[in-house]
Amino acid sequence: MLYSVVMTNSDFALPQPVASAAMTAMMADRPQDGGGGDTSILTKTAPKTARPPLYKVMLLNDDYTPMEFVVHVLERFFGLNHAQAFDIMLTVHKKGLAVVGVFSVEIAETKVAQVMDFARRHQHPLQCTMEKE
Ligand code: TYC
To answer: pTM score, two decimals?
Structure first.
């Protein structure tokens, strides 16, 4: 017996390009000649927008800086109200350090410099540092 096998298109249906003729026509209308237009119609990907790195600013505990001074620093340079400042000061006092804010590198560097200068001018050993998040 003789069998003949005929493969038709529908036996191996592959995803077909959508509107390929139309797109080919569009591409032909917009040659990639550096004319300034966006011609990447078929390959466009979502643009990547990297977020700027953030830095934690921390206060460190010591045995000599008065508690009221630390509370004042937190109110003055970090915009905390008195209750928030007192809570964070106590956390530093008990745990050794606490994050007092998260900022861009420029703002973090400014905060650290302001606190260190203010503590030095008042002859307290308070330390303020920053670390990439
Ligand atoms: N440990 C200090 C004291 O007992 C208070 C203190 C709190 C100091 C927080 C520094 O970052 C600090 N006087």
So the answer is: 0.69
